[in-house]
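Hi R.,

As promised on Friday, here is the backbone we talked about, encoded as structure tokens. Could you run it through your design pipeline when you get a chance and send me back a sequence?
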């Protein structure tokens, strides 16, 4: 870890010998309310390395950063024992030199979906503008990347700033998703590789991903020259408080004084404080209101105005505090108080304010000029009615023009609206959009259009989704105009399902939908949100880095059985592209031992699309709930874990036919009308301790329809050296970090539909040729085809590192093994041996109490002559056991007759399909149905003529069996002298 840090620091910051480099870090000791920021100046690389070595050993030290610019001077403080010590200063005025240009690339909502996607975007940007490849790349620990161009010669601040501005402008013009304020901030602090990112629940390592040689200055200048015309100004940045973790790492220039009324226009707490003179503010909020006043015009007037209504207000005390805060702002680089800190200090107005989630400040969000003349910028307003615009955080504004022609912007909708959509749900039109909760989590809103027309219904419907709003006539007018615009556009919009592939009524491809987005050849567009509960289970949450790390731990083991289970995550959506009569297939991994990795693999596979815990199916789920969910997620895979007991096995097997049949059960609504029966096409992947293939054979006797739907293999026990506890830890992380891989995969297959379709077809044709597949093996072909193609596509997306050659070889071996198993499956009634086994089972069970052997069977229509038909063993104790006659065998003419009714009853009792079996004995042994009296011409004759099955035994495979069968009767001790 220390070596990574040393290599990094040797390249990215300047070591002039005359200036200091600041190491900045937070500490959190027992009893401390929050982390405290500290800074240590170091003069050379050795000092920096020694300081880092000490910091890394202290368990109370959390996040560690380095300032990009060296500082001309260090500050001095005095310890409690009276000893002076140096502290790092970080300001533009004190900045000396810089060594790097840098970009902060985020992997999060609004940024890139994965580290891999971010890396590809940077690579494409560099190639497009002709920049040299980055010389240093650092993984920030949260999935993001810090990208550096370290220069051969150090730069002064005046030399550096134009290049940084140019890099920022170039990245903006080419659509790179990055923190633009970071790039142009000369005193930005960035994380040091070899340290830990402690901002998340669990500490994550900051890693050095790439280290290359330094770059000649002239190469960078030449590449950025076309972008150096326009200066990028720093404005609306939050200012760093060295004791405030919530604003760490941000520059502290001279702030443009704000108008307090502009601040009140974006902050409900300041608005109320201004109106009530702070009557309800406790001491922490009073202090924060004064901090805000120090960044406003007429600081003293504003400070006293925000305080004077409180019962404890004293003019002198307020004046002293304002002067102290003003000094701190100048000497300690104290910055804007954040929305989050205001919320934590007890401001009740923050509870439903989306600004809290933005990691910003009311001062940053406020217009730089008075609301009387300010124009609110417009963003993403293609769905807004005329006369409305959206600000940078997603609130809706309108303009009021007074008699003098002055524009007065007014905020109409004080909550975020993004990705709006109208869709039909159960025959009724709904408005759906995404907002933001106070904790920063997405808030998916779905309300009936018919209920958004009155003041009370608007307030009630939005309130049900944790959105509190005072519904004024302006709000009502906006909602009406908003809905009219959306509804006017809906006629030209394809009605999409919430998940999976979509085609319009004319059969034209319309895209692949996942988690509220439709990915198609036309790009990305909104899609209908499913029910909120399902959307929470199947949509991206957290960060993608956790899943990517877990995926590597599966594929790097080179265990193709686990790879096959894992590949089902990507195979599920491809089933629909196969066509034909295959709607689904079950793929299973079995092993008696625990700790094999089956369950872990399934959870990581489930996390591609959704919550690896709650979205996983299990035997406690009811059949209706499983089929209902399958009908909604449609083409996403279903994972089923922990099948252990015999009862669980029976429950699961009973669902296989329905789940692989492609449609949910037909059900009625409360009014008796038939509900819409939803269809689906997917893979069902399962893990079990026992073979479910064998269980299906037992439960579906007499037919191959069950086990031909299953492709099952054994998961070998891993070698001791391969066992790792890291997987368990990573799976725990996935409970809060999932769905990002599914979004990336959805976008890739949705945008490249034709290529994906062709790939699947080509893979299937190649596989069928390789294995010379029979028609009844088509489901196995589909399983192997989609697993192979899915693994290949996941590799192309940069999500996985499947060993495709090893996976293909493993599946081929298992396909051949399954084929050999099928040959001996007793359910396959196309094979005469299996038919004979079932028939022999019946004859053996019924021979003592329900059969007789006679010298011959009367085939004429009339009654045989007296004494013409004789019974073997007649007069012995055995004949006393005869209860009813079902079977008669005539030895001389070799005719076997069996009662149709009795045989049918026995087949049903045993679980064999009657029609399938009767068809098989006709094909295998030439059995024919006829009418006759069993035992005709004997004292045991059936009194009624019945339908019987008649088989001519000579020349068939039954000939030897009947010889043994009748010999056993003759040799029965109970027959006595009849022998």
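Update: got your reply. Pasting your designed sequence below so it's all in one thread:
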């Amino acid at each position: 870890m220390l070596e990574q840090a040393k290599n990094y620091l040797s390249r990215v910051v300047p070591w002039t010998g005359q200036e200091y480099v600041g190491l900045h870090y937070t500490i959190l000791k027992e009893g401390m309310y929050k982390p405290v920021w500290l800074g240590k100046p170091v003069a050379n690389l050795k000092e920096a390395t020694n300081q880092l070595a000490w910091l890394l050993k202290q368990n109370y030290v959390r996040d560690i950063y380095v300032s990009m610019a060296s500082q001309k001077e260090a500050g001095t403080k005095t310890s409690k024992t009276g000893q002076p010590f140096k502290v790092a200063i970080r300001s533009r005025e004190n900045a000396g030199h810089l060594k790097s240009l840098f970009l902060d690339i985020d992997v999060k909502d609004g940024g890139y979906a994965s580290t891999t996607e971010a890396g590809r975007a940077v690579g494409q940007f560099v190639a497009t503008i002709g920049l040299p490849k980055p010389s240093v790349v650092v993984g920030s620990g949260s999935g993001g990347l810090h990208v550096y161009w370290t220069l051969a010669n150090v730069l002064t601040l005046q030399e550096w700033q134009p290049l940084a501005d140019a890099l920022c402008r170039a990245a903006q013009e080419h659509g790179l998703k990055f923190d633009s304020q970071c790039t142009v901030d000369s005193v930005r602090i960035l994380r040091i590789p070899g340290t830990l990112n402690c901002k998340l629940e669990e500490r994550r390592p900051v890693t050095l991903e790439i280290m290359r040689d330094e770059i000649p200055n002239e190469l960078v200048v030449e590449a950025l020259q076309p972008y150096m015309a326009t200066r990028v100004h720093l404005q609306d940045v939050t200012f760093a408080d060295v004791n405030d973790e919530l604003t760490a790492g941000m520059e502290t220039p001279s702030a443009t004084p704000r108008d307090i009324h502009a601040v009140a226009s974006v902050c409900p707490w300041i608005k109320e404080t201004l109106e009530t003179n702070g009557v309800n503010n406790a001491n922490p909020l009073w202090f924060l209101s004064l901090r805000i006043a120090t960044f406003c015009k007429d600081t003293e007037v504003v400070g006293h105005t925000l305080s004077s209504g409180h019962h404890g207000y004293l003019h002198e005390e307020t004046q002293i505090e304002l002067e102290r805060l003003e000094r701190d702002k100048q000497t300690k680089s104290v910055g804007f108080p954040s929305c989050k800190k205001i919320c934590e200090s007890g401001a009740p107005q923050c509870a439903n304010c989306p600004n809290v989630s933005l990691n910003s400040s009311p001062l940053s969000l406020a217009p730089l000029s008075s609301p009387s003349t300010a124009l609110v910028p417009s963003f993403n307003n293609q769905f807004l009615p005329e006369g409305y615009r959206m600000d940078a955080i997603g609130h809706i504004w309108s303009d009021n023009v007074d008699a003098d022609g002055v524009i007065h912007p007014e905020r109409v909708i004080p909550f975020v609206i993004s990705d709006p959509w109208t869709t039909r749900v159960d025959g009724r039109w709904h408005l759906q959009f995404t907002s933001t909760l106070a904790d920063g989590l997405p808030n998916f809103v779905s309300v009936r259009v018919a209920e958004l027309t009155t003041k009370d219904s608007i307030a009630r419907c939005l309130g049900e989704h944790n959105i509190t709003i005072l519904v004024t006539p302006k709000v009502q007018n906006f909602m009406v105009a908003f809905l009219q615009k959306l509804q006017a556009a809906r006629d030209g919009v394809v009605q999409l399902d919430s998940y999976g592939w979509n085609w319009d009524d004319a059969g034209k491809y319309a895209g692949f939908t996942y988690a509220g987005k439709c990915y198609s050849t036309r790009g990305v567009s909104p899609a209908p949100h499913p029910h909120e509960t399902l959307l929470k289970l199947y949509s991206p949450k957290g960060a993608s880095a956790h899943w990517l790390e877990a995926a590597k731990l599966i594929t790097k083991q080179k265990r193709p059985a686990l790879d096959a289970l894992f590949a089902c995550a990507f195979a599920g959506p491809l089933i629909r592209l196969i066509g034909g009569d295959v709607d689904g297939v079950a793929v299973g991994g079995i092993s008696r031992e625990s700790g094999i990795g089956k369950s872990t693999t399934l959870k990581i596979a489930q996390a591609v699309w959704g919550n690896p815990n709650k979205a996983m199916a299990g035997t406690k789920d009811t059949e209706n709930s499983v089929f209902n969910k399958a009908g909604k997620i449609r083409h996403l895979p279903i994972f089923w874990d922990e099948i252990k007991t015999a009862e669980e096995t029976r429950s699961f097997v009973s669902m296989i036919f329905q789940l692989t049949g492609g449609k949910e059960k037909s059900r009625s609504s409360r009014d008796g009308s038939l509900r819409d029966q939803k269809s689906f096409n997917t893979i069902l992947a399962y893990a079990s301790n026992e073979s479910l293939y064998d269980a299906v054979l037992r439960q579906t006797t007499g037919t191959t329809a069950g086990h031909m739907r299953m492709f099952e293999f054994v998961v070998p026990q891993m070698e001791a050296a391969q066992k790792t506890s890291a997987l368990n830890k990573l799976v725990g992380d996935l409970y809060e970090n999932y769905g990002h891989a599914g979004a990336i995969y959805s976008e890739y297959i949705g945008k490249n539909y034709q290529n994906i379709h062709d790939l699947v077809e080509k893979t299937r044709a190649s596989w069928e040729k390789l294995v010379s597949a029979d028609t009844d093996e088509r489901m196995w072909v589909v399983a192997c085809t989609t697993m192979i193609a899915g693994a290949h596509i996941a590799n192309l997306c940069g999500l996985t590192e499947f060993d495709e050659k090893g996976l293909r070889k493993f599946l081929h071996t298992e396909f051949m093994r399954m084929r050999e198993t099928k040959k001996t499956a007793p359910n396959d009634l196309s094979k005469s041996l299996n038919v004979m086994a079932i028939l022999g089972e019946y004859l053996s069970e019924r021979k003592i109490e329900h059969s007789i052997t006679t010298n011959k069977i009367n085939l004429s229509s009339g009654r045989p002559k007296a004494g013409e038909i004789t019974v073997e063993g007649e007069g012995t104790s055995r004949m006393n056991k005869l209860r009813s006659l079902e079977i008669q065998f005539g030895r001389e003419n070799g005719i076997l007759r069996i009662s149709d009714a009795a045989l049918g009853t026995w087949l049903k009792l045993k679980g064999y399909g009657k029609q399938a079996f009767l068809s098989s004995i006709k094909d295998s042994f030439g059995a024919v149905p006829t009418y006759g009296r069993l035992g005709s011409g004997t004292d045991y004759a059936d009194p009624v003529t019945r339908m019987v099955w008649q088989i001519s035994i000579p020349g068939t495979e039954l000939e030897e069996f009947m010889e043994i069968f009748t010999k056993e009767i003759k040799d029965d001790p109970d027959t006595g002298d009849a022998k």
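One thing I noticed while checking it: The chain has five domains: 2-227, 245-365, 388-493, 545-662+679-823, 832-978.

Thanks again,
M.
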